[in-house]
């Protein structure tokens, strides 16, 4: 390196030459790849594209309390479009094939394009198998159009259970934007009932498969030998507390009449049956719900989509009298021999309030007053007990608050107190006369059928109030684990004497001569109940019945309301009686080894069909 | 530090090599665009944002280096190198493992690859040693000590199971000693076994051609006849032993070699990346498919494309024009580097420049060569383009130093 300064001369030229040659070789290779072989590589690029295939998780199954399958899944074909490969010219053809409006189809594809150009989006759900056959046969004509096999809900015909189960619906824009990682456009989500409440449990987790497909969209190989695939996680199965057979009988007994039936297992709070009529046919909701069915259901004035069992409120009528009796007995205001003379009417100031029996009940004590549902007795009683205690005991018995069944539709009902009346009528604008109506469960006090069933459970259990629930446990199919779902239990502590007097009165309603609920009598079983008729300015009153059986070891508590038919004793009590009878028979037959059923049950009894 | 930015008054009075800086920034920008595209669907803009942050830090580092005198760098070289060797030694135990290689140190919000810095300090120390008055590049002793300077960090990097980077350490030794005055014979000794071994794997004809070329080269260099004979003999022995060992390799290792020679033999297995990157580039044509429209890129055919296979993105989305532009920009940068190495008066600065350009050059040909199927798949990044903060940052630091050398080119040291 003696010549001049460092690093000049031949070595610099050699370095420059090496650099230039190396880079020219690379550019030459690029030329070779991108021009000479461009057709070949370009074709390979089109030939070999990786498709991401979402593996839809299978939605969990639903069983009833005896493990009978109620909801399962059936295959359904959903047509998808991958916007990047799709050609808009074929929209008319595709719209005709799918039976869709061209503009609707175009909108759906535009929306899919916004979501992802390279991933397939669901365009039309639940298409006929013939359509899929056609698509398969003429793949070349439908670039970018594919299909996935999805599951759609399938309902076994045991019972309709519309309001219990609820339905699934296509995911809304709002849900999509809130949970973009969970939901894709076209996904089904629970929209009502258990499907909505237990959406997280039932849904499962989406899996992904990456496959290499050729230019015709046919499968070539698993991408990266399937190492990047993730399997779908199945949704968990639900086990309901519902007895599908009892549910079906309850639905059948209500028939076309509007109303509701709720039956509860008083030992756990598990709902045995929950009926709201009119209801709707769930199978209309399993695939795509035709818009005309939607609008028909929404326009129906009898409101079939409305779950009366948890969302409708009615005055409880005479069924509410036990709350007042309990308050009076427990607070020491009356004792069992305290009597009122009923001449058939009650006078307060200038007002005259009638008993339902014009000739009067004569002198009655608390047990007889419940048995005969004497209004005059309770008119007098509420004046002695006072508004504050009446309200407090009402709240204690579960009224004016939600039961916690876990339905988004549930309403707390109305339990008036002094504050409420001050708000409604103004301070000093209401009098003791307003209380007279409350004494017999009329006026502002309003309850849901579910609250009444909980009330029946509480009376059956002498104060033990379990949180009513529809699901007893879930089953994770992947880990094969059962998760018991916990529920709360409250205890309303009243003296044994108080419970005895009220319950004796309720037993006499059903089993003694002169009881108002003899229609609920069950041959061979001691039971208890209370009838009621909720006054209705628009026509006949609503018929109420609450009850439980067997008397000493209750296995079912029930509330029945039938709208606009008249007296509870005539219309609601027989329905409750038949259901209770059939349920008790069925658990004797099925559960005899596990459960102890009171010996008083007469196995030879044939039911109450003659009534 | 003596800071005199206005002292240059030569035939070429400029104080900044604008072309060098421009190429660097242009390449970094293409890298950012490519990373954005490659990671568009696979994890969002996090990669892009991080790289952008590092690019900004790199520019700041580059500017700072510009104002640091080569003398200061000379003074600090050994201390810095020893410090980084210490860090390298603990990385296998404390570092985090990414794709089978434990080369990263986790520093809270970002992780850091000490081997990137070690390349710089190794070159500094090597240049320092070879520029000393008492070193004689013609002597075996000097070449051997220079070899040890490189071998030590190379061994530490090999302990991190980072074969690609350790190969760079070996390769960068060659241009530096050659520039310092070593005989072409030395270069031949270092390079020949690779080509002969490779040729023997391809086939007998290739082997014979390779040995022929070696013979001609030896005759041209006209080194001592005995030594020449020994070199030729040893290379022939390499050829035979490669054959011998290949027969005895486990089948999957044989397959890996066979796959480099012919990626098509297992298109969905080992050869997958190479085929897919060739498909991506090949399908680009003259002007490419357009930004964010590369189907191979957007569908994430190539795993972790934003790192080692980033060249596919300009290749597919901007076609021959885009890919050639990258190569030409890198070529201009290298040639500017050689120019700086020959105009600086300081021997130290000149050798460092050659070392840095060597690093960038080998990174480039190995990386691009692998994506276009001319080189085996060795995981090293493409300078300025690949995703990776410490790699980008350290390369911008190199450019900063080269600019400083150019600024101070009249200074002897």
Structural features, described:
The complex is a heterodimer of chains A (611) and B (413). Among the domains of chain A are: 74-151, Alpha-Beta Complex (Penicillin-binding protein 2a (Domain 2)), CATH 3.90.1310.10; 245-281 and 308-591, Beta-lactamase, CATH 3.40.710.10. By secondary structure, chain A is of the alpha+beta class. Residues 1-5 and 592-611 of chain A have low confidence and may be disordered. The termini of chain A are far apart. Helix content of chain A is 36%, strand content 21%. In chain A, a hairpin with a 6-residue loop joins strand 22 and strand 23. Chain A is elongated. By secondary structure, chain B is mainly alpha-helical. Chain B has one domain. Chain B has helices at residues 18-38, 46-66, 70-94, 114-130, 140-159, 163-180, 184-202, 204-221, 225-248, 251-261, 272-282, 295-298, 312-317, 319-343, 347-371, 389-407, and strands spanning 96-98, 101-107, 110-112. Chain B has a 3-stranded antiparallel beta sheet with strand order 1-2-3, with helices on one face. In chain B, helix 14 (319-343) runs antiparallel to helix 15. The two termini of chain B are 14 Å apart. Residues 1-11 of chain B have low confidence and may be disordered. Classes of the chains: A alpha+beta (611), B mainly alpha (413).
Quick tags:
A: 611 residues, alpha+beta, Penicillin-binding protein 2a (Domain 2), Beta-lactamase, five-stranded antiparallel β-sheet, 23 strands, disordered N terminus, B: mainly alpha, three-stranded antiparallel β-sheet, 16 helices, 3 strands, 69% helix, globular
Identify the most extensive interface between protein chains.
A-B, 40 and 51 residues
- Protein structure class of chain A: alpha+beta
Mean pLDDT of chain A: 85
**What amount of the residues of chain B lies in strands?**
under 5%
Shape of chain B: globular
| CATH architecture group name of the domain at 245-281 and 308-591 in chain A | 3-Layer(aba) Sandwich
Count of the separate structural domains of chain B: 1
The oligomeric state of the chains shown is heterodimer
CATH class of the domain at 245-281 and 308-591 in chain A: Alpha Beta
Mean pLDDT of chain B: 82
Low-pLDDT windows of residues of chain A: 1-5, 592-611
| Order of H and E elements of chain B | HHHEEEHHHHHHHHHHHHH
What is the strand content of chain A?
A: 15-25%
Biggest sheet layout of chain A? 7 strands, mixed
Q: How many strands, which pairing sense, and closed or not: the largest β-sheet of chain B?
A: 3 strands, antiparallel
Classification by helices and strands of chain B? mainly alpha
| Share in helix of chain B | 55-70%
């Amino acid at each position: 390196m003696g010549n001049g300064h460092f690093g000049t001369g031949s070595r610099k030229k050699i370095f420059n030459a090496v650099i230039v040659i190396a880079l020219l070789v690379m550019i030459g290779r690029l030329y070779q790849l991108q021009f000479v072989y461009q057709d070949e590589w370009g074709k390979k690029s089109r030939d070999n594209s990786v498709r991401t295939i979402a593996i839809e998780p299978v939605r969990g199954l639903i069983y009833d309390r005896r493990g009978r399958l109620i909801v399962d899944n059936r295959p359904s074909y959903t047509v998808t479009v991958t916007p990047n490969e799709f050609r808009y010219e074929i929209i008319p053809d595709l719209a005709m094939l799918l039976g869709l409006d061209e503009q609707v189809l175009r909108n759906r594809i535009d929306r899919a394009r916004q979501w992802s150009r390279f991933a397939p989006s669901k365009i039309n759900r639940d298409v006929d198998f013939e359509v899929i056959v056609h698509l398969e046969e003429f793949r070349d004509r439908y670039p970018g159009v594919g299909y996935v096999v999805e599951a759609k809900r399938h309902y076994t015909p045991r019972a309709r259970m519309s309001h219990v189960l609820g339905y699934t619906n296509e995911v809304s824009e709002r849900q999509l934007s809130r949970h973009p990682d969970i939901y894709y456009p076209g996904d089904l989500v629970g929209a009502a009932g258990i499907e909505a409440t237990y959406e997280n449990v039932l849904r499962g987790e989406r899996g992904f498969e990456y496959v290499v497909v050729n230019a015709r969209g046919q499968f070539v190989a698993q991408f990266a030998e399937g190492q990047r695939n993730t399997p779908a996680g199945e949704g968990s199965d639900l086990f309901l507390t519902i007895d599908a057979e009892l549910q079906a009988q309850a639905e059948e007994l209500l028939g076309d009449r509007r109303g509701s039936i709720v039956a509860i297992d008083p030992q756990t709070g598990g709902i045995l049956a929950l009926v709201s009529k009119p209801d709707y046919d769930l199978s209309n909701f399993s695939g795509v719900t035709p818009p005309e069915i939607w609008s028909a259901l929404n326009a129906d004035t009898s409101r079939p989509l409305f779950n009366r069992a948890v969302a409708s409120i009615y005055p409880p009528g005479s069924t509410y009298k036990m709350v007042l009796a309990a308050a009076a007995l427990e607070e020491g205001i009356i004792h069992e021999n305290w009597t009122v003379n009923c001449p058939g009417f009650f006078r307060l100031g200038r007002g005259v309030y009638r008993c339902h029996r014009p000739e009067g009940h004569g002198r009655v004590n608390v047990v007889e007053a419940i048995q005969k549902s004497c209004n005059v007795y309770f008119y007098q009683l509420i004046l002695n007990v006072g508004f504050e205690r009446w309200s407090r005991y009402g709240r204690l018995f579960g009224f004016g608050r939600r039961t916690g069944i876990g339905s988004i539709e549930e309403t707390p009902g109305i339990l008036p107190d002094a504050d409420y009346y001050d708000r409604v009528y103004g301070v000093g604008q209401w009098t003791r006369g307003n209380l007279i109506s409350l004494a017999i469960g009329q006026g502002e006090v309003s309850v849901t059928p579910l609250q009444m069933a909980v009330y029946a459970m509480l009376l059956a259990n002498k104060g033990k109030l379990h949180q009513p629930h529809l699901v007893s446990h879930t089953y994770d199919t992947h880990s094969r684990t059962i998760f018991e779902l916990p529920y709360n239990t409250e205890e309303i502590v009243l003296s044994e004497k108080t419970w005895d007097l009220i319950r004796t009165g309720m037993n006499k309603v059903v089993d003694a001569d002169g009881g108002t609920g003899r229609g609920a009598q069950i041959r061979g079983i001691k039971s208890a109940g209370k009838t009621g008729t909720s006054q209705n300015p628009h026509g006949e009153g609503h018929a109420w019945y609450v009850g439980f059986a067997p008397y000493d070891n209750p296995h079912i508590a029930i509330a029945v309301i039938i709208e606009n038919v008249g007296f509870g004793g005539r219309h609601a009590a027989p329905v409750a009686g038949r259901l209770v009878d059939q349920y008790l028979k069925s658990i004797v037959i099925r559960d005899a080894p596990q459960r102890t059923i009171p010996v008083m049950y007469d196995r030879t009894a044939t039911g109450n069909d003659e009534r | 530090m003596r800071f005199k930015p206005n002292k240059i008054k030569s035939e070429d009075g400029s104080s900044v090599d604008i072309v060098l800086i421009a190429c660097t920034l242009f390449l970094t920008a293409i890298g950012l665009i490519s990373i954005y595209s490659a990671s568009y669907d696979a994890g969002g803009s996090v990669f892009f944002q991080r790289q952008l942050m590092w690019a900004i830090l790199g520019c700041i580092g580059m500017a700072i280096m510009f104002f640091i005198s080569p003398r200061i760098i000379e003074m600090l070289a050994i201390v810095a190198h020893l410090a980084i060797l210490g860090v390298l030694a603990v990385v296998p135990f404390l570092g985090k493992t990414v794709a089978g290689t434990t080369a990263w140190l986790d520093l809270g919000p970002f992780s850091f690859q000490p081997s990137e810095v070690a390349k710089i300090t190794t070159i500094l120390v090597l240049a320092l040693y070879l520029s000393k008055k008492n070193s004689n590049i013609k002597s075996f002793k000097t070449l051997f000590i220079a070899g040890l300077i490189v071998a030590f960090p190379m061994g530490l990097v090999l302990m991190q199971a980072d074969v690609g980077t350790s190969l760079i350490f070996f390769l960068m030794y060659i241009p530096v000693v050659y520039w310092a005055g070593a005989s072409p014979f030395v270069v031949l000794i270092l390079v020949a076994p690779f080509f002969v071994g490779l040729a023997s794997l391809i086939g007998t004809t290739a082997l014979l051609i390779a040995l022929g070329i070696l013979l001609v080269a030896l005759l041209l260099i006209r080194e001592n006849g005995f030594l020449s004979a020994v070199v030729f003999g040893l290379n022939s022995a390499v050829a035979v032993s490669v054959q011998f060992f290949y027969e005895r390799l486990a089948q999957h290792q044989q397959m890996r070699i066979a796959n480099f020679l012919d990626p098509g033999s297992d298109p969905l297995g080992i050869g997958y990346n190479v085929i897919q990157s060739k498909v991506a580039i090949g399908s680009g044509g003259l002007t490419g498919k357009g930004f964010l429209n590369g189907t191979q890129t957007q569908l994430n055919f190539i795993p972790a494309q934003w790192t080692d296979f980033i060249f596919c993105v300009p290749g597919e989305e901007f076609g021959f024009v885009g890919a050639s532009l990258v190569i030409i920009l890198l070529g201009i940068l290298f040639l500017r580097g050689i120019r700086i190495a020959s105009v600086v008066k300081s021997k130290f600065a000149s050798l460092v420049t050659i070392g840095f350009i060597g690093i960038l050059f080998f990174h480039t040909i190995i990386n691009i060569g692998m994506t276009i199927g001319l080189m085996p798949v060795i995981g090293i990044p493409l300078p300025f383009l690949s995703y990776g903060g410490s790699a980008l940052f350290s390369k911008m630091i190199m450019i900063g130093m080269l600019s400083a050398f150019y600024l101070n080119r009249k200074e002897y040291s």
